[in-house]
Structures are given as structure tokens and as C-alpha cells.
Amino acid sequence: MSQVVTETMVRVENVHKAYGHGAAAVHALRGVSFEVAPGELVALKGRSGSGKTTLLNIVGGLDAPDEGRVAVDGLDLAALGENGLLELRRDRIGFVFQSFGLIPILTAAENVGVPLRLRRADPREREQRVELLLALVGLADHAGQRPGELSGGQQQRVAIARALANDPALLIADEPTGQLDAETGHAVMELLRAVVSSAPSATPGLAAPGGPPAVLVATHDATLLDLADRVLELGDGKIVQH
Fold first, then answer.
1. What number does CATH give the domain 10-241?
2. How many Cβ atoms sit within 10 Å of the Cβ of residue 79?
3. Which pLDDT belongs to residue 139?
4. How far apart are CA 75 and CA 126, in angstroms?
5. Nearest CA to 193 among 150, 155, 137?
6. Which residue of 127, 155, 168, 204 lies most exposed, with the fewest beta carbons within 10 A?
7. For residues 26 and 30, what is the distance between their CA atoms, to the nearest angstrom?
8. At what angle do helices 152-163 and 108-118 cross, to 10 degrees?
9. Which residues are bridge partners to 232 per DSSP?
10. Higher-confidence residue: 221 or 231?
11. Which H/E stretch holds residue 18?
């Protein structure tokens, strides 16, 4: 996949998205536009149904807008095609979900290594990268434990390490603290803040070397918004505050 050097990691221009037709249509997004710079942590806030998850799915190439344009890392998502989108999601975007999404039968280390296996990374390089990432999220001593043996906060940390495995240019997190208590959730958000400033560069041979990822995170928790560089509020499918 060709890549264009850009000072803007995410560019969203006049994006519209509706579900259904006619009078019954639900307009999830109504002309949303914003940008995210490399190494910037931007938080999306808004009530349930305000369009946050829809917007994240469109930025992550999981859904397509009805109108408008989205570019990630200099690449126009509409021009990539399905194979190009698969490659973008695999190599340049990391996803962190509220439900953690870990594979129960795999250890923490094996879960983090899944994206590297999909890329058929050299086993030795994969092990080095996994060890580095588990240390980054403070779980070096838990590499051999399975998700059921870890707390919710620890599972989310494993999920963040997995999302960083391929040195993504963009990290997307959808309510990553939604299943955690306030203290643990704050610790996870602090980790995301730290990722922006100290994410390790790729192990040679695994991914193109790059700086810290841009982070786009949706959260309901107003106490966590202070950790973001910038907060965008969504209301009725529109950006109501920059």
C-alpha cells in the first residue's frame, strides 16, 4: 500500500451517515468534519446515540459514509477498495474495544502476538515485540496468564498492547473504560496518554518505523477528558464543540 507523507493523521470532511430510508431514516452523522494530528489524543464525548461509535467505525474503515471523505495516514479510504481497507486495518490502525475482545484460550502474550502472527512475522522478532509491549503496559509478569486469570483493567491493558503490536499510525478506542471501575478506568486512560508520548518504535522487520500513534477515543466519563489534548463533542450527529 502506497503512503503519502502527511502532517494530518486523520481528516474527516463533511461526513454523513444514515440508517434506513425516508421518514424513518436515522441520521447518525450530519456533516462531521475534523482533523487529528500525529501523536495527538483526541476524545469524543456525547450521549448514547450521538454518533460516536458510527464515527469511529467510519474512521477505522469498518463502515463507509453516505457522503463526505475520510483519509487516514494520507490515504483516502474510499479509494482503497476492500483489500486495501483490510491492509490498512491490519497494518496502520489499532482497535481497542470496551469488551476487550481477547481470545480466552490464549495467554496474554499469545493474545498480543495475534496481529504479528497474521503478518507472519519472524517468531523471534514477534517474541521481542510482545515482551516489549507487555512491559509498556505494566504486565511483563503476567505474560503466561489467560484473560480469565486477569482483572478487567489488566485485560484492557493486554488489549491495548495487542492494538499496538503492528506499530499503528492510529489507535481507535471505543469506550475503553466502560466496563472498569473509576480508578482502573483512569489508569487505562493514563496509559493511553502515555502511549501517545512513549509508544515503542517497531521492531525491525515488523512494521514501518514511526512515531507515537494518534489516538481517537470515545468516552462517556467526563473525569477522563482532561487527559486528552482536545475534546470533540457530538450531539445529534454533529460536532457541537471543538
1. 3.40.50.300
2. 9
3. 93
4. 27
5. 137
6. 204
7. 10
8. 20
9. 44
10. 231
11. strand 10-19
Instruction: Tell me the three cell numbers of residue 110.
Output: 499469545
Distance CA 56, CA 170 (A): 11
Q: Which three cell numbers stand for residue 143?
A: 505474560
Average pLDDT taken over every residue of the chain: 86
DSSP 8-state secondary structure symbol assigned to residue 4: -
Cα torsion angle, 89, 94, 100, 101, sign: positive
- Residue 172 CB contacts under 8 Å (≥ 6 apart), including other chains: 56, 59, 60, 93, 94, 95, 96, 215, 216, 217
Average pLDDT of the segment spanning 47-76: 92
- Assigned C-alpha cell, 187: 489508569
Residue 42 Cα distances to 101, 159, 173, angstroms: 23, 19, 10
**CA 69, CA 51: separation in Å to the nearest integer?**
17
Q: How far is CA 35 from CA 62, 70, 121, 168, in A?
A: 19, 10, 32, 17
Domain ranges of the chain: 10-241
136-183: per-residue pLDDT in tens? 888 999 999 999 999 999 999 999 999 989 889 999 999 888 888 888
C-alpha grid cell, residue 134: 507487555
Q: Return the percent helix, strand and coil in the chain, to nearest 5.
A: 40, 25, 40
Rounded to whole angstroms, what are the CA distances from 227 to 110, 152, 193, 215? 30, 21, 7, 12
First to last CA, the chain: 33
Q: Which residues on neighbouring strands pair with residue 238, listed in sequence order?
A: 235
